[in-house]
Design brief:
alpha+beta; Nucleotidyltransferase, domain 5; Actin, Chain A, domain 4; six-stranded mixed beta sheet
Length: about 500
């Protein structure tokens, strides 16, 4: 009997969907693509009819479509924010738009193979907040997709490429995509993989494309003496020039110069612009320098030196930027650190997520978390090694003094505070407080607290942030993917 498991890398500029097939032939993955590339995360909604278009045809025709459609891109960056748009008599939120993108991806898979994505593991940036996780979960629900679990993007990439990196005790994952730069420093110790440090920066390929487009625009201003700043150009013209800039950026990964046709660019008209590798290097230098400095800061945060790293795994489209590659060779490779660029690296995150979807194991808590009581003792609510999701039995605590409220302090077993809250009380000595605690598959821990003498409206909900987890992968079978991977994946991943 065939079983299907899905992993989704819901990216800022592109989204990758991968299916892991488990049947009598073994386990293997299938990549879903448009012309060999992941699907652009772009959606167009007709301003009058509400018709929805998505994917590469929207990206390539964005300028043309923008006259009749409202075009949405980089929607991942505003998930969880309180914004909305009125289009064709319907109110659209970031969650609904993201939901439509996920629905279209599911329909794309169905058109290819006749299978709908009903459940998936979705990869997220390392700094995705609980609010953003809830928003993405809501978006997936709109697409009728159940999120089985979340996995951070660098950790998923590490897992997918484990065969390449397993010989090193300390590995860095440098994941630079369209909207974010995610860095994880991982340590393999006694069969377990721990995150020594993680960090995320909201700078990616979109910012690079805009910088190139603005540089081209400035050149046209100097050439024509037309005094219109790039920011004042109509959206359709800025979109067109940014798209051309992205194409040139990709071409300069293997060419030394690229001619860019600029057709009907507003008052500037038609032009031909030549961008060479030296121009590109000068334009992106501030962003490359920032990315490298951010990597150095994360290394320091992990408490190790660059020389202690065995290798650096480079994934994400922006990691292939030529000016970055030249600096990486100079600063990292020349110091003895192996730099690994996986084949088809744009699929690494989604493949890793799909492989985790096919694993019966899951997340476990990597610390004791509970309450600091009035006598300064520690009372655990969640215990180390509990498997997520966790739904604990209710706990009842008594008030110890006549007070109009009760203060709760949540911490780990070393008494490092995670959160605190104040709950209204009647102030009687026989008053009790009921605590319901759980950790969902989204790795968000919540505790509901209420006095047995107060109405339901006085219930408080506390969210515990910064909890430490690891992922148990013991017993994972061999998976045949677009590359090779070993059959001895018996390790834990800390998150």
């Amino acid at each position: 009997m065939q079983k299907n498991f899905f992993g989704i890398d819901f990216g800022t500029t592109h989204s990758a969907a991968v299916r892991l097939i488990n049947d009598e032939a073994g386990e293997r993955t299938v990549l879903y693509d448009e012309n060999g590339y992941p699907i652009p995360s772009i959606l167009a909604i007709h301003k009058e009819t509400g018709e929805i278009l998505f994917g590469r045809k929207v990206r390539e025709r964005r300028r043309e479509l923008s006259k009749e459609y409202k075009v949405f891109s980089s929607i991942k960056l505003i998930l969880g924010k309180d914004v909305h748009w009125e289009i064709a008599g319907k109110t659209w939120t970031p969650e609904l738009i993201a939901g439509q993108l996920l629905r279209k991806i599911s329909e794309f898979v169905y058109q290819k193979d006749g299978i709908l994505i009903e459940k998936a593991v979705i990869a997220i940036p390392v700094d995705f907040t609980p609010e953003q996780r809830r928003a993405l979960k809501k978006a997936a629900s709109c697409a009728q997709i159940k999120i089985d679990k979340f996995i951070t993007e660098p950790t998923a990439a590490y897992f997918r490429n484990y065969n390449r990196v397993k010989g090193y005790s300390k590995v860095a994952v440098f994941d630079w995509g369209g909207g974010t730069l995610d860095i994880s420093i991982l340590e393999n110790k006694n069969g377990k993989i721990y995150e020594l440090a993680v960090a995320g920066d909201r700078q990616g390929g979109d910012d690079i494309d805009l910088a190139i487009a603005e540089s081209i625009h400035n050149s046209l201003v100097r050439k024509t003496n037309i005094k219109i700043p790039f920011s004042d150009m109509a959206d359709e013209y800025r979109d067109m020039l940014t798209y051309r800039a992205e194409e040139a950026k990709k071409a300069l990964s293997y060419l030394d110069s690229k001619s860019i046709p600029i057709i009907d660019y507003g008052e500037f008209g038609d032009h031909k612009y030549k961008l060479d590798i030296d121009d590109l290097t000068n334009i992106v230098k501030p962003m490359v320098d920032r990315a490298l400095a951010f990597f150095d800061e994360t290394i320091q945060k992990a408490g190790i030196s660059l020389e202690q790293l065995g290798c650096i795994l480079m994934v994400g489209g922006s990691s292939e930027l030529r000016p970055l590659l030249e600096q990486v060779k100079l600063l990292w490779a020349n110091k003895g650190v192996e730099i690994i660029y996986p084949e088809m690296g744009q699929w690494s995150v989604a493949e890793g997520a799909a492989m985790m979807a096919g694993n019966d194991s899951g997340y476990r808590l990597n610390e004791d978390v509970g309450l600091i009581l009035c006598d300064d003792s520690f009372y655990p609510l969640f215990k180390k090694n509990q498997k997520v999701p966790i739904k604990n039995h209710p706990v009842r605590l008594a008030i110890v003094e006549d007070s109009p409220d009760a203060r709760f302090v949540f911490a780990d077993s070393d008494k490092r505070v995670k959160a605190h809250c104040t709950v209204p009380a009647k102030g009687f000595l026989n008053e009790y407080f009921d605590l319901d605690s759980k950790i969902d598959n989204d790795l968000i821990a919540t505790v509901k607290i209420k006095s047995d003498m107060m109405p339901e409206d006085y219930k408080q909900i506390v969210e515990l942030k910064g909890l430490k987890f690891y992922y148990d992968l013991k017993g994972m079978k061999e998976v045949k993917t677009s590359g090779d991977i070993d059959d001895d994946l018996n390790f834990d991943i800390g998150l």
